[in-house]
Amino acid sequence: MDWWQTLIATCGGLLILWLGLLGALWLTGRRTHDPTSWQEGLRLLPDVIRLLRRLAADPDLPRGVRVRLGLLLGYLLLPFDLVPDFIPVLGYADDAIVVALALRAVVRRAGPDALARHWPGTPAGLATLHRLARLPAPDAPGTSNGGTR
Question: DSSP assignment of 35-80, as one string?
């Protein structure tokens, strides 16, 4: 019967971890008081997916960054999430929060010029992405695609 106790303890630990993550996502989502920011984020979604794919394929970026971006793309393509999509607000917010955290990590490691080089959308869209992910403001519109490393 010892294996049953181990199984129950493991499942209980995973449940507690999942509930803690759900609470953290809820608290992070509550910090965004502007409802239009989620709408802006949804409008940027196709460009963000292309950005993540381009960043993951960039051989100039460190391997660890590319691996994390590949895992992020895999997570976004999975049919199940940490928080099911039928839960109002949190269902879609978990994906946005995970992407924002990943982009912050990319900027810390590879620099904001990597985002600007690979951004497929408009300069205004890049500025919105920076604001939503709480990144430093991008360069002026004329220099956003011509950064050097």
Answer: HHHHHHHHHHHHHHHHHHHHHHH-TTS-HHHHHHHHHHHHHHHSS-
Pairwise CA distance, residues 82 & 98, whole Å:
10
CA–CA dist 125, 93 (Å, integer)? 19
> What gap in Å lies between CA 19 and CA 22, rounded to an integer?
5
pLDDT per position in the chain (149 positions), as tens? 587 778 787 777 767 766 776 666 666 555 554 544 555 656 777 888 888 889 888 998 898 888 888 888 888 877 777 777 777 766 777 777 788 788 888 888 888 888 889 999 888 888 888 887 777 877 655 444 444 43
Q: Look-up: residue for tokens 């690979």?
A: 118
**pTM of the predicted model as reported, rounded to 2 decimal places:** 0.61
